[in-house]
Each structure stands twice: as C-alpha cells, then as structure tokens.
Amino acid sequence: MFGLALRTLRLRKGGFLATFVAVFFGALIVSACGGLMESGIRSETPVQRLAAAPIVVGGQQTLKLPEDDPATLDPEDKHKFDNATLPERVRLDASMAVRLRAVPGVTDVVGEVSFPAQIGSASAFGHAWDSAVLTPYTLAGRAPNPGEVVVDAGLGLAVGDTLPVAAHGVAGQYRVSGIAHAPQAMRDSAVFFAPSDADRLSGHPGRFDTIGVFGGDVAAVASVVGDAGVVTTGADRGALEFPEVNKSGEDLIVLAAVSGGLSAMVMVFVVAGTLTLSTQQRQRELALLRAIGATPRQLRRMVLGEALVVGLLAVAAAVALGPVLGQWLFDQLAANHVVPDVLRFEQGWLPATVAAGASLLAVVAASFVAGRRASKVRPTEALAEAAVERRWLTPIRLVTALLCFAGGTALAIVTVAVMTGPVAASTAGPAVMLWAFGLAAISPGVTKLVATLLRWPVQAITGVNGRIALLNTRVGAVRAAGAVTPIMLAVGIATANIYLQTTQEAVSNQAYTEDLRADAVVGGPSGLDPSVLGRVRATPGVASASEYVTSTVFIEQPFDSNQDKDGWPALGVSELTGNAVEVPTTLGRQVGDTLSLRLGDGAPVDVRVTAVVSQRAGFEKLVLPAGLLAPHTTLGLAPQLLVRAADGVDSATLTARLREATAGSPVFVGDRDTLIAAHAKGNEIGAWVNYLLVGMIIAYTVISVVNTLVMATAKRRREFGLQRLSGFTRGQVLRMAGIEGGLIATIAVLLGTATAAGAIVPFCLVVSGSVLPTGPLAVYLVVLAIAVVLALVAILVPAWAATRGRAVDATSIGE
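^ ABC transporter permease, sequence as received from the core. Prediction below:
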C-alpha cells in the first residue's frame, strides 16, 4: 500500500499540499523555539575584555536555597536545594589574587574592575590600566597617572585633551595620556584610570570583579579558589565578563519552552484537522478501495504512508529553515533588550531532532485517527456511506474534552482561590489552552450546536442563501469544524494573552502610582554621591527626600516556604537606618523578629523587623535601609533620589530648584511623570515579548485557517455546479459561500471568546476585582475583524475560482 500511497500523492496535490503547509510551519516554529532554548542553556558569550587570560576567576553568582525547612528534616536525609541566580555582581576580595600568585606555574595574576563612566555625552566603562593586558589593548601614548586617563580609540579623542568624566556619582576633569586600541570589536567603550583612581571610583575598593590568571594548572587554581568563586576557561569566560547573561539565559529557556510547547500543541490540532479533512474528502475513493477488497489494515497503512511522505518532506524543509527563523527571533529579542546583545544564538542538531520528532509524532497520531475512521466501514456499505459524514464523537475525543475541561476548571479555581497578584497569570495562561483544546476535541458537535442556535437570526437577515448556508454548515459539521478550530484557537489565544498582559500592565502601573509619593526624581547613570541627598534636602520647597534603591534579597532563616528562586523584591530607602526591615503582612512575621538574609550579591546580614505593613497582593516587597542595600548592588550607590514637594510648591518650581541645587553634579532631574513613564517602559519590554509570541502563534493559525478553508472550498466545485444547474445563479452561490464564511467566523469568535473568558475572568477577579480586563476594546475588535475577513477571503476566493466556467462542466468533475 505504500507504493499506492506514493502514486496517490501525484494525483491529489491540493490535499497533500495543505498537509505539507500545516506540518512545515508547525515544525518550523518548534525548531526555532528549540534554537532559542539551546541558546539559553548554553548562554555562550564571546569573550572580549578577558580574551587574553587563559583562566578567569569570578564570584559565585549562584545561591543554594533549601526546598524544605532544614529544621523539620531528619539529619540523615539529603537536603534538596534550588539554585538561585544572584542579581548583583559578586566580587572577589583582593587577597584572592595574592593567594593565586602562589600557585605553582602561575606567571601573572591581574585583577579587573568595571564600572559605568560618562565621558561628556558618551557612555563607557571604567577600568584600571593594569587590567588592559587581559584583552590585550595596545597603547599609543603612556599609561595614566592619577588624574589622567587612557581612552578607547573609538571615542575619537587625542592625547593631551582634557575631558569631564563622571563615575561613582562624582565628576572630574581628566587629561588623556594615551589612546588604547582593542584587538577586536568591543561592545562597550573603555576608559582606563590609574589603579588608585579606578579602585576609588569602582565603589568597591579592595575588591575585583574578576581575576585573570596566566599560566598554572586549572585544577590547582580551582583548589585555591574553592567555594569562594568559580574558575572558567574557554568560552565560559564570557559569562563572568557579562554576568547578566546568566539570568537572561534562564529567562530565554522559559520563554522558548512556553512558546515552543504552545506551538507544538497547536500544531497537533491543526495537523489533525487538516489530515482528517483531507481524508474525509476522499471517502468515495477509500470506500471504493474497501469494496474491491482492500482490508482496513491496508487502508490505514496507505493513509499513514501518504502522511509520512508529506510529513518527512515538510519536516526536512522546516529543519533546514528553523535556524533562520530562530536567528531572526533572537535578533528581535536582543534589539528590544530582552536578552543581552552579547549573547550568541546557537542551534545544533538537538532542536532539529526534537522538532522533527514532535512533528512526525503529530503526523502519525493524526494519520492513525484519520486512517482508523476511513477503514471502519464494512465493504458492503462503503459506497452507500461514502457521501455521508460519519459520526464524529469518538471515545478519544470525549475523554480528551473531559480532561481538558476538568483541567481548565481546576486552574480557574486555583487562580481565584490560591494565586495573588500578577503571578495568577501562571495558572490563568495555561487555562485558556485547556479550554481551547477541550472545545477543539468536540468542535464538530459544538459547531453544529452553535449553528443551530444561530438559525433564526441568520435566516432573518440572509433569507434563502442563509438557509442553504446553515444547512451546509450543520450537515458538513466536520468540514466546518476544520475551519472553526484554528480560528477559535487564534481568537482565544490572542484575546486571552493580550488582555492578560494589558491588565497586568495596568495593575502594575496602578500599584506603582498608588505607592509613589514623590513629586520629582534626581538620578545619575553612575549612581548618586551621598552628599547629593543633603543638598537636595536643604533645597527650598523640598518637604522630604529619600534614596531609592531596588534589588532582590533571599530569606535564609526562618525558613520561608513561599520563597522561590526569584527571591523577594527589596526596596532601599533613607528613612530606615541600621539593620531594620519593614515586611509585608503576608510574610507572617512580627515586630521584633530577626531575619537572616542574603543580599543581592550574596552577602549575609541579620535584620530586625521594625514594621509589618499591608501591601498590595502580588507586589509585596521588603523595605531596607538604603545605606544597607546600596553597597551590595552592582552599582554600589543609590541610582535615584525621590523628592516630595512642600505644601504650595508645584512640580515645575520644584524641579527648577532641584536643578539649581545639583548644578555641577552628574545628575538629571525629572518630575513625577518621568518616574511613571520609566516604570511603564519596563513593563513594555515584557509585554513586547508576549506580543511577539502571540503574533507567531496567530500567524501559524492564520496560515492554517487559509489552508483549511481553501482546501475545503476548492473541493466543492461539483456541489456548486449542481446548485447552479438547479436554478442558483453564480452570484447566489458566492453569497451563500460568503454567508458560510461569516457563519464559520461567528462560531469561531464565540467559541474563542468563551475560551479566553475562562482565563481572563479568574485572573481579573484576582488582580483587579473585576470580571472585565483592562485594555482597549479596539484590540478585541481588531481580532474579530481579522477572523471575519480571514474566513470570508479564504472561502470566497476559491469559491469564485470554483464557479468559473460552465456549471455542467463542473458536475462532470469528481470530488
């Protein structure tokens, strides 16, 4: 039967082309997402600043968090830990360099510091000149003395120039003593200071970001470093030079897993629907084969063989083009600062294998279902039943639907009863997929039911053409469901994900605005010198001012069962001093309790609870003294001051006075709107990622809709011909087809809206207390318009082509 399958492919190019398109685009997206995941796992970053050092030692950026309370475990039991990535740069004490110099075989040890610096309007990173050998840079001129700098050749300066340089919150005039030339293209411009100046301006005197080791054995170096740091060689050195890639790699893994898994699930239904529709359109041919002696097993083998041939061709093309799409997606993520631009896209053979396996598994499963249905007719009844649609409700469909509906209901209950704040999206998001897949499993029956419910309004508006369209939709429910399902998936996924995102953004912005008491902000790209706070507070019209520091902390003791590897958001303010901490009521602590914390750079500290406050659900944070939190951030200083105006002082007056008070300092002054806009912009990055992924899934479902509708309509040429011979005009046939398209779009929109509501309503009840999402109505209207236009165009264009020529000629062509 495989030989017959190959010969059949040549004669039924249309149906198999539709299957090819469905499998190809599904495998293409899964393959591209696999490449993103592999890139996140590898997190390969080309070495730049540290390229000349064969061994690089850096701080330990991983913190082990126990999954269970150690106090409740048997001492003999093994403790399970979760690895959390520390958000701030973990530095090494300078004494580590002294110990490494004593390692046998080591010829040189060079410590490196890196800190943001502003040279006029240009941004750069400052370093000590003695670390230039780690690249290595070549020098034109001489090394800098205190008060001098060597600048990157790309900055366009000359030896002898004097320029203002702002670093670590202070600005100074430095003379250019030399020009440094890098051996390769560098992401960041560099400015080199004398070692004493660099040590002071780094904000962390006596500590190194990384240490380059020349010579010696890696194992010997690692034994000296121990648990105090990590030892890297080769490509792994890039992760120490750019520590932000560690967290970005984890985020990219999650992003790729979610989008790839979603695409794979959508592909299963799309491919199954396409293959089922293609097989159904061949019922007369398959029935004839049964009548002349073909066994059910032979028919199943033939359908499987056809599907595998098409699937293998589609998968081969998708695997070849997967890296191209993956690279494009990666470039978009990098361009929008979702991942660092130094992270490198890598796609090997594994993502291609997974994409191929998942796609072929979907093809085999779909062909098994299609072949099984085609082979169940008894030979004596085959020809009589060929033109009539078989029953669509099978035990597999019913069980799938029940499981999906049960899962969606369970997630909705968990969302409302357990989740708080934006984290509710983690259960609300998957719920929409379960509702959608449940409806997709029984879509023929649901399509027929909704078409029946729409009978009176459709007939009242459209007359006889509408009655015929309704009859066609109800009788051909399986065919119509093949088009309804992908549109329903597109509407449901798009509506749910977009409104979940807009609602989450609105709630986040609202929470930030409600908590914000400041009327102005003073900030500095390299941090704010502590003296600025005193000058600001002394400014006329200022009621209060506070440093504003953000970071992440981890609670070690007492054990916090609600803490995950993302830790607790932490806020540093000047109103608190010493080792005080303000905690939310949800933490379950009392005033006077002691908490053992790990700060953002892993430093341990014990703090005493001085206040327990009620905070908005989902936005809880620990409030610490800015003087305690800031030194343990990568910057080492507070990046902002929040200022509140005295009574009777307007925003414009306040900002003008602040600019006068901070004149000569490397700072900027903004009003309240500046703070709100900056916060909203941070949310937009996450929203953009969501929109990109939703757009990718929608694009696939759009292709599938067009694919299915064109295939289904093109096969109706004989039906259209018979209608014209019975008295219909070509215009009436086209109007009937248009009404069918509108009916299919309406059914799909109603079902898609219902699936989206199953996720949106529980989420909105949790985060905003309303059943309706926050966001522009235009988004929903655009989704509806796309669905309607898509269905109409995909039906009317092939219907127009199918009704060309004489009606009698159309009736002589087999289905």
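The chain has 25 helices and 24 strands.
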